[in-house]
């Protein structure tokens, strides 16, 4: 009942020549069987949306400002993302929390702005390696979720992404028991906050070093509804096998 989602996060990578990767992904037969979202840098959004038009691939942003407009030099608002053709936006990625000091409260305000603009908010949570080692990962992530999630969250406007900070860009991945434990914990926290019906509809993605070689195992894990993929989403040749694995996961 939860439609599987493969989301690509290009981060600060990609120029106009890279838009051809989107067209290649859109041609993959498996891309029609799941939801595929690609989040390129803001400079490419409008052109990416134009190239994806008429295909099953949709385009998203990587961040937005909590205000709809105003004197915020260098920022981009959620209505602007929507106007450029985005359908979703990644919020609270650990790189933004670390590099820009984003708090969960700010992430919640951004998510509210995104939802008000008709975008799906992909809210990221995840523990550091020190928090995993000292046994506080479940508590840390539950707190991030509680503080980052707007009360207006529902299946149609919110996706969660569990991204352990120590697994992002490192080639290290939690074992599937750890992923299953965290995703079931998140599902339970969602149910306590929003009710079982709403919680059952919200997709929870795993993110952090997802590659063609580990995707099948990750997608077989309970409560994993897809992936947020960084490095392996930059090339269609890497992203398509991940989409294939998701489509095959049933
Ligand atoms: P990675 O990044 O796949 O390169 O580890 C994932 C992410 O940060 O969303």
Structure, explained:
- With 250 residues, the protein is α/β, with parallel strands linked by helices.
- The chain has one domain (5-249): Alpha-Beta Barrel (TIM Barrel).
- The chain is built from 11 helices and 8 strands.
- The protein has an 8-stranded parallel barrel with strand order 1-2-3-4-5-6-7-8, surrounded by 6 helices.
- Helix 1 runs parallel beside helix 2, helix 1 packs parallel to helix 11 and helix 7 (137-148) packs parallel to helix 8.
- It is globular, with a radius of gyration of 17 Å.
- 2-phosphoglycolic acid (PGA) binds at residues 9, 163, 168-169, 207-210, 228-232.
Binned, the helix content reads 40-55%
User: What is the mean predicted local confidence, pLDDT?
Assistant: 97
Structural class assignment: alpha/beta
CATH architecture verdict: Alpha-Beta Barrel
CATH topology: TIM Barrel
Quickly name the level 1 CATH class: Alpha Beta
Ligands (ions, cofactors included)? 2-phosphoglycolic acid
Q: What is the name of the CATH superfamily?
A: Aldolase class I
Shape: globular
Strand proportion: 15-25%
Order of helices and strands: EHEHEHEHHEHHEHHEHEH
The counted number of beta strands is: 8
Number of domains: 1
What ranges have pLDDT less than 50 throughout 5 or more consecutive residues?
none
Number of helices: 11
Compute the CA-based radius of gyration: 17 Å
Features:
250 residues, 16% strand, globular, 41% helix, alpha/beta, binds 2-phosphoglycolic acid, 8 strands, 8-stranded parallel β-barrel, TIM Barrel
TL;DR of this structure?
The chain has 250 residues and is an alpha/beta fold. It is built from 11 helices and 8 strands.
């Amino acid at each position: 009942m939860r439609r599987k989602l493969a989301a690509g996060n290009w981060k600060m990578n990609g120029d106009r020549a890279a838009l051809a990767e989107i067209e290649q992904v859109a041609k993959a037969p498996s891309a029609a069987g799941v939801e595929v979202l690609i989040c390129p840098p803001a400079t490419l959004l409008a052109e990416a949306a134009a190239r994806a038009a008429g295909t099953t691939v949709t385009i998203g942003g990587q961040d937005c400002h909590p205000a709809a407009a105003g004197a915020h030099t260098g920022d981009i608002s959620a209505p602007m993302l929507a106007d450029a053709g985005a359908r979703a936006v990644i919020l609270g990625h650990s790189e933004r929390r670390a590099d820009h000091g984003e708090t969960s409260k700010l992430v919640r305000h951004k998510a509210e702005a995104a939802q008000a603009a008709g975008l799906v908010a992909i809210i990221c949570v995840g523990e550091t390696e020190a928090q995993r080692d000292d046994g506080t990962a479940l508590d840390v992530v539950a707190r991030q979720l509680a503080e980052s999630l707007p009360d207006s969250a529902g299946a149609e406007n919110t996706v969660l992404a569990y991204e352990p900070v120590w697994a992002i860009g490192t080639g290290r991945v939690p074992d599937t028991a750890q992923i299953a434990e965290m995703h079931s914990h998140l599902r339970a926290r969602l149910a306590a906050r929003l009710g079982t019906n709403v919680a059952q509809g919200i997709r929870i993605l795993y993110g952090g070093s997802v590659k063609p070689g580990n995707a099948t195992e990750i997608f077989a894990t309970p409560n994993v509804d897809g992936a947020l993929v960084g490095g392996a989403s930059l090339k269609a040749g890497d992203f398509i096998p991940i989409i294939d694995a998701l489509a095959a996961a049933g």
